[in-house]
Amino acid sequence: MTSIPLLREREKQIHDKAGGAPFEMACDRHSLAGSVSQRACVFCGSRVVLYPIADALHLVHGPIGCAAYTWDIRGALSSGPQLHRMSFSTDLGEREVIFGGEKRLYKALTELIAAYRPKAAFVYSTCIVGIIGDDVAAVCRRVEKEQAIPVLPVHSEGFKGTKKDGYKAACDALFGLVGTGDTTDIAPVSINILGEFNIGGEAWLIRRYYEQMGVQVVSVLTGDGRVDDVRRAHGATLNVVQCSGAMTFLAEQMQARFGIPYIRASYFGLEDTAKALYDVAAHFSDHPDVRARTETLVREAVAAVMPELRRIRAVLEGKCAAVYVGGAFKVFSLIKALRLIGMRVVLAGSQTGNADDYAHMRALCDPDTVILDDANPLELSRFVVEKGADLFIGGVKERPIAYKLGLGFCDHNHERKTPLAGFEGMRNFAREVHLSVTSPVWEIVKQSSFKC
Questions:
Q1: Long-range contacts made by residues 255-259, C-beta under 8 angstroms, separation at least 24?
Q2: H helices then E strands: how many in the chain?
Q3: pTM, entire model
């Protein structure tokens, strides 16, 4: 396994701190053809951001296969409407590829809006639409005028870039809604939470923290999202961006047009969760009561989870983990969270990190850590074995790699149903890591079927 050769064209996207080579991480480039990248496409990136808006219609303009990427692949819980769970497609076939699919799109939009009466509609362009040249924006404008609801094109043709380009396409579509709603009841101490998608109910936990602090949450973009909340998001006085790769684009657009500042935050792990809350409190320094409530909240929440974390640390001390997820900012938090429970990170990587992200990642990592950008299955397999990882933390596409290698696996991305953010989330995460690493099944698997 460790004899797997690395592709020469990818050498600068891999850095082994133990090797002593100069650090010059290449990133922000298209995936290498033939390397079977773990990275998703532009269309996928746009769906990640927009799908959690629960009272909007989501229509995929393209072949039916693209519509397979739906709510059930990337969960997003809703406290009310469930329209986002319906996956609609124009199901383009050979006839539309030859003669164009605009008539089919118009028909689908008008029928779906009449049937479901959504607050807004998002229309996702796929690869084939970019090739045949359908004017999706023109169809959206026509239907918007006729139906009197926002109909927003999402220019997410999969071949034109990376997953990060899909994030930008989604933010551009969202920005078409921001600034169109009423803001009269928004308090001076108010925020928008950007980049939280409520995969396992995290948005509800985070909102509760801020409400305990005395901070009004105007909108969550986009977990458990509502169109009307997005439309009035410009009334908040601060944007708090969690998934920086996905939502910094929107934060910058809102800062330029509406003058709303933004800060970056993470809610994974005790340290980063506390910092996020304190940073928001510091922004509202002219309201000292917010700081006082924050101190009480953090003190009580940490005290509630630390006894169990100490017990788990005693078992996991010295174990090793590999981390490969979508956003680099999440990797930072996971390194610190794993260190808190006694584990070392021997592999760290992301799909969408930039040069600054990887420089910060290198500073956080131990001396023998391998850092990867836009990895493929063979690279991940090689370094997981070479570095002796006891656990793999990733998403749905990394799970089979871990199981084939006889490793415990924790889903920190798409399919999980347990919240891993916040103080309670850190306890849930530690429990899951402990159960996964200490399960006796992995020794049985290795002895019976796995040979390095």
A1: 257/179, 258/178, 258/179, 258/234
A2: 17, 14
A3: 0.90
CATH 3.40.50.1980 fits 190-299, yes or no: yes
pLDDT at 79 exceeding the cut of 70: yes
Q: What is the pLDDT of residues 207-217, one digit of tens each?
A: 999 999 999 99
pLDDT at position 416 over 90: no
Q: Which two tokens stand for residue 392?
A: 């793999």
Q: Kindly state the tokens that stand for 400.
A: 């089979």
Judged on CB neighbours under 10 Å (0-12, 13-18, 19+), 444 is: exposed
Q: What is the mean pLDDT of residues 34-48?
A: 79
The tokens for 262 are: 């933004």
The H or E element containing residue 381 is: helix 377-386
Residues 8-28+317-416, CATH architecture? 3-Layer(aba) Sandwich (3.40)
| CA torsion through residues 356, 359, 364, 370, sign | positive
229-244 residue pLDDT tens:
999 999 999 999 997 6
Cα–Cα distance between 66 and 56 in angstroms, integer? 19
355 CA to centre of own chain: 19
